[in-house]
Design a protein that fits this description.
The protein has 271 residues and is of the alpha/beta class. The chain has a single domain, classed as NAD(P)-binding Rossmann-like Domain (Rossmann fold, 3-Layer(aba) Sandwich). 41% of the residues lie in helices and 15% in strands. The protein contains nine helices and nine strands. It has helices at 7-10, 23-34, 46-62, 81-85, 119-147, 168-187, 207-211, 216-221, 231-242, and strands at residues 14-18, 38-43, 71-75, 100-103, 151-155, 194-200, 203-204, 229-230, 252-255. β5, α6 (168-187) and β6 (194-200) form a beta-alpha-beta unit. The protein is globular, with a radius of gyration of 18 Å. The termini are far apart. The structure holds NADP nicotinamide-adenine-dinucleotide phosphate. The site of NADP nicotinamide-adenine-dinucleotide phosphate has 31 residues, from α2, α5 and α7. NADP nicotinamide-adenine-dinucleotide phosphate is lined by residues 18-19, 21-25, 43-45, 48, 76-79, 104-107, 128, 132, 155, 157, 200, 202-203, 205-207, 210, 231.
């Protein structure tokens, strides 16, 4: 495979992607496999993981080099501390040296304003987007220090740069991720370990369906009159960052649809 990814740099590297059963995580796993990396796809829904794993194998054979591209599925709830602690026990022996961690698992519930926020949903957002990500990163920083190499790729958001009404908890989780990531990059400055934060704007995935608690019509209306990013657009940025030369750290990628300028400023063709 040619183009923006250097296959040789990713060949036989192993990437673990959380939240890989759909959306950006699934697209990222498939692109890594196409570029010749081995992938560990992790998420809660086992059946969906198997579909993505098959997509990875196919992409590796058909579009890619046919090298690397081995896949392991791991059922993992990042908010489950014990499950995260046991992550390496769930992996076959030849998948226990990991080169790239993509902290992608994340979700949003509702557009409720402060005062009306469901506390259970708020806990789930923090336990997934922040605490799960931190816990897994602690384990991987130790792993990467032992290997004297590694790359941590964080799924931030435009919501981690600027708060918006109706998104207080989600914005707080992504601001927390951003603060953590900036500090982490500084702590690792004397190591070869890389830290990247990708901050997308609107991406049409199941994200909005989850936000509107399963209401697909409401979710669709978010993208009315505008061409949003799709999961593969963000996956390309992630795999591009991972395939730079080893002395290069792509610290941040802020990527928006061309007609979006901030969480609330977007030009819609029906305006
Ligand atoms: N879509 C956007 O507009 C947008 C914009 C900026 C940033 N992002 C960020 O991008 C990331 C991916 O979102 P997406 O758009 O791809 O959404 P998505 O299609 O809803 O995918 C979310 C993924 O996260 C997984 N997940 C949720 N809770 C989990 C948990 N506790 N443990 C493990 N996996 C979990 C889900 O899998 P299971 O249900 O199988 O566990 C699913 O695979 C998130 O961090 C999100 O905040 C999205």
């Amino acid at each position: 495979m040619s183009g923006i990814f250097s296959t040789s740099r990713l060949f036989n590297k192993t990437a673990l992607i959380t939240g890989a059963s759909g959306g950006i995580g699934a697209a990222t796993a498939i692109l890594f496999a196409r570029a010749g990396a081995n992938v560990i796809v992790a998420a809660r829904r086992k059946e969906q993981l198997s579909v993505v794993a098959e997509g990875c194998r196919k992409a590796n054979k058909e579009g890619g080099t046919g090298q690397g591209g081995r896949v392991v599925e791991v059922v993992l709830d990042v908010a489950d501390r014990r499950g995260v602690d046991g992550i390496f026990d769930k992996l076959p022996a030849d998948f226990r040296k990991i080169d790239i961690l993509v902290n992608n698992a994340g979700l949003v519930y509702g557009t409720d304003h402060v005062g009306d926020i469901n506390e259970t949903e708020s806990d789930t957002m923090f336990n997934t987007n922040v605490m799960g990500m931190i816990h897994l990163t602690q384990i991987f920083v130790r792993h990467f220090k032992q290997n004297n190499a590694g790359h941590i790729i964080q799924l931030g958001s435009v919501a981690g740069r600027e708060g918006y009404a109706g998104g207080s908890i989600y914005c707080a989780t992504k601001h927390a991720l951003h603060g953590f990531t900036v500090a982490l990059m500084k702590e690792l400055v004397n190591t070869p370990i890389r830290v990247t934060e990708v901050q997308p704007g609107m991406v049409e995935t199941s994200f909005s369906v989850t936000r509107f608690r399963g209401d697909a019509d409401k979710a669709k209306s978010v993208y009315k009159g505008i061409q949003p990013l799709v999961a593969e657009d963000v996956a390309e940025d992630i795999v591009w960052a991972a395939s730079r030369k080893e002395h290069i750290n792509v610290a941040e990628i802020f990527v928006l649809p061309v007609n979006q300028a901030s969480p609330n400023i977007a030009y819609r063709s029906d305006q």
